[in-house]
Design goal:
alpha/beta, Immunoglobulin-like, 6 helices, disordered N terminus
């Protein structure tokens, strides 16, 4: 029964190939992780790549379920080590496809590395390779899978033209703030700074806008591009910046209050000093040809009316020094 079942399955694949004309038939092996990615994450990325490959309409792609059925009928178990050209050729021969796709996903520091290849089943030669380096969050790799699938499709002679649209991104910071150049990243790759316009394939893309300054939050947006689109990415102040500015404002207010108090104290001290200098005055009086310095109040004692003699009483008289 197994040989008959295999023939029926291969006939199904062959019929699909003939119905699609000259399209290359391919099957995609699950990518292998050489870094921190676990199997579920790698399987998700492989499925995204396979689905986008179908949407390009450049290949006739064997469904994963159909591939598993054929291999199971032949008692062929794909191990984690089936990532070489030899293993890909062996699987491709069982599936009856013209090419197999395989790849590796790794990570060095903060950079994800993606290496994909397409192998000719008839000759075992590598027909195409695509390599990408991506810096960002893990979910950004979904966009990388899309761009790499489109890149494979773009090298096939029988490809169907992929519609493209312009995405224009402008950036802005809060008023009266400075943050240097603003980086614009599309699908994990830096597209430019401050303002860019890029022609992209129709479909989903990821946008990241950021500066090197910790004073501003990152701007992120997922985009489904179906026509020319313009996006203004406004960066907002980060929480750490707001806390720091609030502290600086409090310090400035305290400094201003202290300066005002010190000024008031100086003016008060000056006023008190002026009062102490304005005490009793001493006057010189000429009495009988002699000069007398009077301190304090001077009292004039006079006789009766007419031309009587007048006498002047001086409190604490002080005679001037001898010349």
């Amino acid at each position: 029964m197994k040989p008959l079942l295999l023939l029926l399955m291969l006939a199904f694949v062959t019929a699909n190939v003939l119905s699609q004309g000259k399209k290359t038939t391919v099957a995609v092996l699950d990518f292998q992780s050489t870094g921190d990615l676990d199997k579920k994450e790698v399987a998700t990325l492989t499925n995204r790549f396979r689905n986008i490959l179908v949407k390009t309409r450049a290949f006739e792609v064997v469904e994963r379920e159909k591939m598993n059925e054929v291999l199971k009928a032949q008692d062929f178990n794909i191990s984690d080590a089936c990532n070489t050209a030899e293993c890909a050729v062996q699987v491709g021969q069982l599936l009856g496809v013209q090419a197999m796709m395989a790849g590796d996903l790794g990570k060095i520091g903060e950079t994800f590395t993606i290496d994909l290849r397409m192998v000719d089943v008839a000759t075992g030669k590598i027909l195409q390779t695509q390599t990408e380096d991506y810096v960002g969050k893990l979910d950004g790799l979904l966009g990388v899978m899309q761009s790499m699938a489109n890149a494979f499709a773009g090298t096939v002679e029988t490809r169907v033209a992929v519609r493209k649209f312009n995405l224009t991104v402008t950036t802005a910071l809060p008023a009266n703030s400075k943050g240097g150049d603003i980086g614009i990243f599309i699908d994990g790759h830096q597209a430019g700074q401050n303002k860019v316009t890029q022609s992209l394939a129709e479909g989903k893309h990821s946008l990241l806008v950021k500066t090197d300054s910790p004073d501003f939050n990152e701007f992120r947006q997922d985009i489904n591009l179906t026509a020319d689109q313009k996006i203004e990415a406004k960066l907002e102040f980060s929480e750490s910046y707001k806390i720091r500015m609030a502290g600086d404002a409090a310090k400035a207010a305290a400094t201003k209050e202290l300066a005002a108090k010190e000024k008031a104290d100086r003016e008060k001290a000056k006023a008190q000093s002026g009062d102490s200098k304005g005490g009793s005055k001493k006057l010189w009086y000429i009495i009988g040809g002699a000069a007398v310095l009077g301190g304090g109040a001077a009292v004039l004692l006079g006789g009766g009316g007419g031309g009587g003699t007048k006498s002047l009483k001086i409190n604490n008289p002080v005679l001037p020094p001898n010349p």
